Amino acid sequence: MTLTNWEIAQLLTRWLLYFGISSVVGGLFAFCLLRQQSALLSRIKGYVRGGALIGVAATIAYFFILVGGTMEEGLWLMFDPMMVSIYWDSPAGSTLIANVIGYCLVIIASFTLGSDRAFSLWPFSRLSLIVASLGIASLIYSFSLTGHATAQAWYYQIIFFAHILIAAWWLGLLFPLWLVIRSATAEESNKVLEHFGKLAAYAVLVLIVCGAWMSFILTGWQGLFSTDYGFWLLVKLALVVAILVMAAYHKLHLVPLILERGNTTLIQKSILMEKMIASSILVVTAIFTTFVGPPVH
């Protein structure tokens, strides 16, 4: 696959968009999961806001790169009024609006996090919970406006939304977990990771079932070795298997070692490696949504 400069720019901004969504979803949940770690909450807020700002910038950049990439005649065409108007009235414009609204709502919600009196029990005020939920809903909804999901039935859309939400939750939580392991005591780290492991076991099961079902609906599991889509699907599957193996290794081996050895050095390094694999999964997902589509079956 040979990519033009415009296509490389599309791929990069798409990856940053996925990073932003993962940071927002995972960061907001981390604020609840790690609410007892008061020293880290400001950094988690920064993680959420930073992810949202990156997402806004990537969304806007992606829109104008789509405009400019139409003719591939120079950067000036990105801002051509006629071409911008055409794309603004297309699904690309609707996606831009949904994403910007979603990220802005998340940023607004982040300023009220932890302001409730019962913060030690629940860090979201009623207002921040409503605003954050609307923001995440807008971000997830944007995925239904373009790509293969637009031609699918309503029940596929629901499964698709669940798949995106759980994936963003899992991948976006890795950085906050790494932060808490670096600063918390061995006992606190063990408690947090045990809690996360229990939640992740159910979430990952749903994620796998959703992903397998969607891939079957789109491909019938045909052409996996003869099409570009099949190739990248297998690459993504291999990366998912790798990250699942690492997650199981954490839960069954490294987490119990925290209390035995009294330090978290090994699991810190392992989570960083897991984060690298997660970033690779986002790259492959960006390739899926930007350059290849499922084969007709």
UniProtKB/TrEMBL annotation:
Residue stretches in coiled coil: none
Listed transmembrane segments: 15-34, 46-71, 91-112, 124-143, 155-179, 199-223, 229-250, 271-292
Copper resistance protein D domain location: 191-287
Gene Ontology terms: biological process: copper ion transport; response to copper ion
InterPro entries in the record: CopC/D (IPR032694), Cu-R_CopD_dom (IPR008457)
UniProt-listed Pfam families: CopD (PF05425)
GO annotations of cellular component type: plasma membrane
Keywords: Cell inner membrane, Cell membrane, Copper, Membrane, Transmembrane, Transmembrane helix
Membrane-topology descriptor: Multi-pass membrane protein
Record's keyword annotation contains rRNA processing: no
Localization (cell): Cell inner membrane; Cell membrane
Membership in a protein family: Belongs to the CopD family.
Role of this protein: Involved in copper resistance.
Protein name stated in the entry: Copper resistance protein D
